[in-house]
Amino acid sequence: MQDKKDIWLKAAVIGSLWGASEIVLGSFLHNLKIPFSGNILTAIGIIIMVSGHRIWPQRGVLFRAGLICAALKSISPSPVIFGPMLAIFMQASLMELAVSAGKRSWPAYLVGGGMAMSYNLIYRIVSSLVLYGLTFVELYQNLVVYLMDQLGLTTTGYWTPLIILLAVFFLTGMVAGAAGIWISREAVNYKGQWNFPDSMPVRAFSSPTNHTRGSLAGPFVMLLLLIAGLYSINVLPVFAAMGLLILFLWFSFIYDKQILQRFIRKKGFWAGMLIMLLLASLLMGDPGYGGYFSYHGFLAGLEMLMRALYVITGFGLISKSIRSSGLIRLFRGKNGSQFYHAVQLAFQTTPLFIQVIPEKREWTNPVRVLTHMVGNMKYSLDYIKKQHLAKWPVFIITGSQGEGKTTFARELACNLNQKNIKTGGVLAVAEYKNGINTSYWAEDIQLGSQKLLIARNNTEENGSGPFVFNEEGLQFGKDVLCKSYKTDKLVILDEIGPMEMKGRGWDSTIRQLVNDRQKPMIWVVRESMVEQVLAKYNTEAAFIIHAGHSKPEQAARQIFNYINEQNH
């Protein structure tokens, strides 16, 4: 069981280093307009993967590292994240495939590096077909024939230029794989050690749209809109299709202005499309106007331009809706995904790596920098184990207001006590009069004693005035929580809500317990506030249990198994 946990921790180290190197170096390369910057970043990723796998030669560690690095890419400010995330995942998967088939031999690392780098070319070819359609194939063939004629050469086949390019990419990847092998050997004797802080801050997973509650169906709706737009190019007259495209772009602008604003500023794209339109007009269809210009070719180029506008804008919308839909939260399912926890770790450790990775000017000697990074992999793993695993995550019981969260928490505590996990803490028990919620009582779960916690200020005739805290009841609850934290194996706090977000209620006690976190806690939080609570207390959830969708005995079994796994 420990091996399974360790492999995700090792993958988090490799994936975080890979992501940090892209963040530190990526913007630098792109801002300087350095050619083939994407391939340079891929080569660095290959070196980190090869070196990491030679340090921790476990099956599946590279595949997991790719998943984690791809998840890190989701916070990129770029409007399109799907392609880069897919590229990272595929590069890691191809490397994993080669290394597993080659049984971790050095030729396997070289072939894996070649396959990972070759994916860049394959991705560009496929993305060009998606972007411009099959018309792009015809344009490419006509261009090859034209160039061969101008050079006085015989066309040997349309595949020859692509095969040559693929060979160049593959050899470049093999060189990166060889560099990874060499650097891993040098890093064994590396003596330098990163200066990490004594205490690692605990952060919840977050993204620019972490608090946006979008629909999980959003990405699929955007995909259907994109497909409909592309289909319209094939079935509608060109000017009718252009009108529909304008409506699509207007919808995109309403949905997210930044997608179109960043897109419009891409001078390279517009220059490329102008060249594409010119080549199509010259090389496709029957020439006219003096033997140079083809109206049919111009229309074909115009269709490619329209298709490119649909695809780029559409994938920007899909990327945006993926972020806002919170798909990552699905991995918090009741089985407590190890992937989600590894992503949490990556989001914690990546900022630390960014701080200690040498600055851009030191990358003039990339071998030294990469040796420095690889040489600290084992230290980074030890640091994560010491700092993170010593602190327990929290379990969340959630649901809508009035859905029975407190009753669920009480029954859950009974089930856990029956499993010899002594569970204490505080429940907020509601009291009703004439169907109106008039007060909440703080209840000691272990002893059953109660003290008035909050009551309505009955200044209104119907008795439905605002709630007011009873200081004695609040202090009673705080004392129970502190006592339970010292004597019980697990502490329940019911509930964390708007008062705590304002720094009142249980806020001071929660902060005290979160800073220590030497034992697991269960927090009761209404569904609409889960993300806000996790962000405020800078913590993460082991998993989230919905009171309306689960049973207390199932949740108790789940928590029991989780605690046993962590203790062994």
List the helices and strands and how they pair.
Blueprint: H1 2-31, H2 37-55, H3 61-72, H4 82-101, H5 106-132, H6 135-151, H7 160-187, H8 218-235, H9 238-255, H10 257-264, H11 267-283, H12 295-325, H13 338-356, H14 366-375, H15 377-387, E1 394-399, H16 405-418, E2 423-433, E3 436-444, E4 450-456, E5 467-469, H17 471-487, E6 490-496, H18 498-501, H19 507-516, E7 521-526, H20 530-536, E8 541-546, H21 552-567
Parallel strand pairs: 1-7, 1-8, 2-6, 6-7
Antiparallel strand pairs: 2-3, 3-4, 4-5
Helix pairs in contact: 1-2, 1-3, 1-13, 1-15, 2-4, 2-5, 2-7, 3-4, 3-13, 4-5, 5-7, 7-14, 8-9, 8-12, 9-10, 9-12, 11-12, 16-21
Describe the fold and architecture.
This protein has 21 helices and eight strands. With 568 residues, it is α/β, with parallel strands linked by helices. Helix content is 62%, strand content 10%. The chain has three domains: 2-133 and 166-205 and 337-384, no CATH class; 218-325, no CATH class; 394-567, P-loop containing nucleotide triphosphate hydrolases (Rossmann fold).
Along the chain, the helix and strand elements come as HHHHHHHHHHHHHHHEHEEEEHEHHEHEH
Task: State the end-to-end distance.
Answer: 8 Å
Helix content: 55-70%
The count of domains is: 3
Q: If helices are DSSP runs of H or I spanning 4 or more residues, what is the number of helices?
A: 21
Widest β-sheet, arrangement of strands:
5-4-3-2-6-7-1-8
Overall pLDDT score: 80
* Apparent shape: globular
| Model regions low in confidence, pLDDT < 50 over at least 5 residues | 202-214, 332-336
Radius of gyration: 29 Å
